[in-house]
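Table 4 source record.
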Amino acid sequence: MNLENAQVQMRKGILEFCILHIISRGEVYASNMLEELTAAKIMVVEGTLYPLLTRLKNSGLLDYKWVESSSGPPRKYYILTDSGREFLVQLQTTWEELQTSVNQIVTNESKGE
């Protein structure tokens, strides 16, 4: 098994959760999402982010609005819908349960008792 591939798959599994969390703080531009994800070492490229944002929008979890920019074309800012906020709450609960479960397994010192 390829370690790098396994690491990429683990990160992909939480990408949607992280994106929804970033958007939940307020209107956000896609390049700002990319910067925050990269700073957190969740490597993602535009070719991955934009299709995911479109899928989340089509699912009714987020919306966007166009904002005029003084330094170029209008920018698309993403916002969570009410459904998106509810979905994020449920994902947060799942994340906390997974953290607890994984930590229990990883920190268990007894072997096969």
